[in-house]
Every structure is written in structure tokens, then in C-alpha cells.
Fold:
Amino acid sequence: MSFSVQRSSAFFMAQMREFYRDFGTMFLNIIFPLTFVLALVFNHYSNPTFKFEIGVVEAAATRDSQAFVQLLGDSPSVSLRTLASQAAAQRAVEGGEIHAAFVIRNPDFRGGRGDVDLIVGPRYEDFSRLMLEAVRDRLRGPPAPGTQAALFQYRVISPDLPEQNDFTFTFPGMLALALVQLGLFATAVPLLQARDRGTLKYLSLTPLTRAELLFGQLGMRVLIALAQTALILLAGSGVISLSPGQWLAVLGTSLLGIVLLVSIGYAIAGMAPSLQAGMAIILFANFSMLMGGNVFLDPNASTVQYVAACIIPISYLADMFRQVITGQAGLWPLWTDILVTIGWSAIAMTIALKSFRFDTGLSGSLPGPGALRAAMG
Structure:
């Protein structure tokens, strides 16, 4: 029987109706990720407890240096820490303990020979420069004849650190999370339920061909995944601005993620001997991916977390999203993320093809149209 666009489209629409009528699946795949991202955006702009953490290193404690430090800490949004050396200050900035560090190498501000090093990453450099200029203006006081043009000079030292904060880490992880929900709760669960009810077996009595059935199932999931990605990107665009090229890169990454997670969903549905066992596998896989899969927890935090991230396939997808969105180096090179994602997809597809059962008592591929009718006749 030849491929029929009309039959495949009808099956596609039936799959879509089943999806949006199931509130639990809708919530996990659309509402929850979108609400989470909107909450992150709101928190990013309304958090009143933010403190600009800065460190100060004084080569010699003089009246000038003390006045400099006092002016730095005048703002209620600034938190000061005294550090022992420039090396300690650089380590603190690179480790994310503070946002910037000011090293007073020569405190001779009254003689116009003051010298300050500013250790800061690109995200907070402009703000730190403004702080220094404000402090210099206040130290200088009202202009008077013979006043030095500059009480001190400064240079910026840029440490080698990735540009990372809570939002830029969590936001790309939410894109990966949305695809995890699609692969587990919008692919594996419906397939297990349909197999348990006998729906998949009775589809063999319809004129649907295998190609039409797969086109309807996969097409629906691709459409949902692209809608997820677009909504989450729009929600986060108030904080992270993406170029057209980045939008395309994110959509391309999403397509790789769709293949990976839908393949895993089919593989789980194939391996599970029953609906109850399948749900247990799905819940365990979901928990493992969220807690160890580079989605919410930074793998650099501990060796155990890093080892778990290396094993769990979603880690590479989340890392890929972070690299294309932030433009910064990730946990692994981008080509490694792509190759590992493709490799895991191939493994999941192989497992799905060899183990998937369309009936609780039958194994193997779906019978052709009319096969059950002939067997029953």
C-alpha cells in the first residue's frame, strides 16, 4: 500500500488531540518548563538581595588607601572582603567567590602616583570601572588650581574564567529539560499506555502503513519540541539576547536532542515488560537526568557529579545548548557534544528496533495492515 498523506495527517492530528487533552503531559512538556523560565527571568530582574561582592588587597594600609576602601564600600549593594594578596584575589574571582577585586599597589593618591589593579571578568568590567571613576572623583574633591588630573591610574586584569552565572547556566538546561520530558512523558508513557490498552495492536487493523504511523508519531513530537524551544527562547530573550545565527544553532541542537530523547523514549517502551515497570524506569531515568545530567547541578562542583555527567547522555545536550547560547567554552568541546549525542541516539535506536513490542504478548515490528485481520479470519 502506498504512502497516503491524508491518512498520515489524520493520525498526526489524532496524536496532537491526545497530547493536548492530557493535562499531565501538557504540564510537564509545555507549562512547567515555560513557567520555570519565566520565574528565572522575574527573579533575575527583581532580586532585591543582590550584593556586588568585591575584594580589596592593600599593599600598605595608609590614610589614602583606607579612604579608597571606605568609598568603595559606601554603597549598600556592595559587599567588601579583605584579601591577603593579588594571587588570592585572582583565585577568588576565578572561583566565582567575588565579582571583582581591587589591588592597591601604590596608595600614594595625594601625590598623584596611586596605582590600582582591577581584576574582573567581562561581565562586571564596565560596572567596576564606573565604581573606580566615582571613587576617584570623590577622592579628588572640588576642582582647584594645581589639583592633579588623576589621583591614581589603574589597569584591568582579565582572569581566564568562563562567563557564567545562575541564569546562563540554568536557562540552557531548561531547554534540555523540556526535551527530556518530551522523550520520557510524551513518548515512552503514551506508547506504554497504548500497548497496555491494545491500541497499537488494533492500529494494525486500519489501513495505516508503518511509514504513515511513524510519520504521524514523530511529526507530532518534532512540532511540540520546536514549539517548546521557541517559547522558552522567547521567555528568556529579556535576559539573553540571541542573534539569528544563535537561534538557528539552538534549533539545530534541538533537532539533535529530539532524535536523542525520542529514541530513548522508544527504547524504554521497548525494554519495559509492563506499564508498571515502564513507569518505574521512566521515573528513575527522569530523576537521574535532572540530578546528574548537567541540567541544574554544575558538574564542576564535585568529582562524583562530573563522573555522573560523563555517563548520562543529556549532559552533552545541555552542554551543547550552553555553548551555542552563551558563546563560551563548555564542559567538553562542541564536537564532542555532537558526536556523543549522535552516538547515544544510535545506541537508543538500536535498542528500540530490537526490543520494541507493540503488544503485551508479541515482540518485533508492527504487523502490516490487515495482518491481524487475516490471522483472525
The chain has 14 helices and five strands. The first strand starts at residue 52 and ends at 58. Strands lie at 52-58, 78-82, 100-106, 114-120, 152-157. The CA atoms of residues 103 and 117 lie 5 Å apart.
